[in-house]
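The authors assume throughout that readers already know how a fold can be written as discrete tokens. What matters is that the chain and its backbone geometry are given together, residue for residue. A single example would do more here than another paragraph of explanation. For illustration, here is how one protein appears when written out as sequence plus structure tokens.
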Amino acid sequence: MKRIESLDLFRGMAGYGVAVCHYYTYLFNSSNFEYLSFLFVDLFFVLSGFVLYPQLIKIYNDKKNVKIFYLRRWYRTIPIFIIALICFSIIFKSFNFDTLKYLFFVQKTYPDFLNSDYMVIAWSLSVEEWFYFLFPIFLIIFNKLSIEKIFIFILLIIYSLKLLFLFNFNDGDFYRTGTFLRLDAILFGAMIAHYFEVIKKFKYSLVALIITFFIFFYFKNILTNEINFAQFIYVALIQLISIFSIIFFIQINPIINLKYLNGLYSILANQTYSVYLFHFIFIYFIKFYNLQNINFIFIYYILSLFIFSYLVFYLIEKSILKLRPNYN
């Protein structure tokens, strides 16, 4: 698979989209921006599955590649996450058992497992890390099956868990953020990559995106106030919007793939991880010092995030990424 420059822009939009939505959600109590933040987070999931697919196929073809896959993923995600976790723990004075749960990405494996969820953005990282860990194991164990059958088998397991949860618990937020209940979001991205040649010819991605987005916002209050089947539909709508979004961005790549803009796309994509990890700290200080009503504070917030994340990538992340092993 060749590099698709529009997906760099897609990643950057997702990262800054979450940061902007959380800014208005936590400083101005905007419910609409809160719903939008759910969507932007899910964009990461489907994108992650899409871009990881070529590496997952390497494992499917040769199980010896699994070690390289794990090391590459952990070098990419763990070091900066630990730095962010330390920062959150210092700010909220919470070096305790919850910190260990975050560290091992188990805080959302069961409802109400945390005493205090002081690093709320970490739920999505738990979904990512457990997918990185579990999916290669399935590829190795069920290597005799076709990749399509493995997809179906894993989806059956995940949706069995979803139904089990829906009929035994009454926690709508956990249904959206529970680690093992959301692994399918990343799997859908891998499936898009697997059927890439067929899906990229789908002519109605923009129409489908607009329709599902309208349905999501029009019915959001009805869907989020109930837990059972309505919650199932609610999360499914988020996933459909994410799927149609990435297909649309893949299709418009020839249009927005411009040499003088590709550098900017790349910068935004490189910043995304640290933007996602650290933006809540910036929001915390704005709220703590009651700065939200100062003129242009939003612009300062975005500029500060941009500069900070740029420095984090080039001074820390880039050096770590060079240590990652390559596939033969």
Remarks:
- The chain has 15 helices and no strands.
- Residues 5-321 form one domain.
- The mean pLDDT is 93.
